[in-house]
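Hey team,

Filing this mostly as a record. A colleague (T.K.) asked me to run one chain through the structure pipeline before their review meeting, and I want the input and output archived in the tracker in case anyone asks later how it was produced. No errors, nothing strange. Just documentation.

Input sequence:
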Amino acid sequence: MDVKNAFLHGELDREIYMVQPKGFEDRAHSDYVCKLKNALYGLKQAPRAWYGKIAEFLVKSNYTMAHAVSSLFVKVRDAKIAVVLVYVDDLIITGDDEAEIRQTKENLSVRFQMKELGELKHFLGLEVDRTEECLFLCQQKYAKELLQKFGMLECKPISTPMEANAKLCAHEGKDLQDGAMYWQLVGSLIYLTLTRPDISYAVGVASRYMQQPKKPHLEAVRRMLRYVKDTINYDLLYKKGDKIKIVGYCDADYAGDHDTRRSTTGYVFMLGSGVVSWCSKRKPTVSLSTTEAEYRAAAMAAQESTWLMQLMKDLHQFTDYAVPLHCDNQSAIRLAENPVFHARTKHVEVHYHFLREKVLREELEMHQIKSECHIADLFTKGLNTTRFQKLREHLNMKSRC
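Output structure:
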């Protein structure tokens, strides 16, 4: 559902004045200003005022604000659930309590000017498609527009977004005469990673050179577009009936950044058959060993698992289990399970030992996994075609063509 003139519904919690708008000046009192009674479009307080209004309405309708996401509201009645997700002036309403959903839509239409847009198919560039057995999530239209915008719609496709073990450098190659195209390309690809975890690592590497892009960096980004062309029909697939349980994978590429020697951390979490959360990020400091790099990656994944479990609790889903977290480094697993601090771990920042607490409380279970089967490798390094495609299949990314 869409709220008409959403920002005009917000009530201000402080006195705000504005100059008289052109064409509506009071000539007799030209030095007067207007005192606003309600929020107005363009006012920096308007989004907050509108959120306060819609949140107040939903809470009075016996919805509970989720702890994990402040824009998510949940109502449980007779073992059935209704969920409202607020994004500025757009509302997504779902759940299995059809009577409550109908009542909520009626109440919203009475209180605000609403436009019902029907079943969710497009939302902020994301496309949702359903069948009786599964749900597909993609950005196919956005990807086509991206390729067309940068003249790559007829380009030659390629099977991987980045060369195997590619090492880009900040100071090698010629400077680009105009970096604007590079900035636009990388920014557009960052948004595409919302449904394309397979390009997260490559896009993350390209984004490191936004300040002073060079020709090799632009060529690397163009390769990503060629890969997008090759996989434009790929969607994230979520099957109905699969066991709903969070499973995580984490990895680190020790000293993988050629310029700073910082490690790249990657993690991915599966819920049932599909991937729901992923990250590829360069660490802010240098790790002194592979064990430390992997341990830090696992700690970062542990934070994400905590948030995901809280989100599941907010949605009243079963959470009485330890989240399995798969790692391919035995030393990092032993360090997480060992309650005794060793001299070799003194330099590791205290907040990374958050992982150890989670393991000792049995909220998280560390599992050894073979490197060749480790999905998180997709988020930390460039891979050859065979291995890349094999790991991509584990993310349950499928082509419908």
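Quick notes for T.K.: The chain has three domains: 2-118, 138-230, 243-399. Residues 2-118 form one domain.
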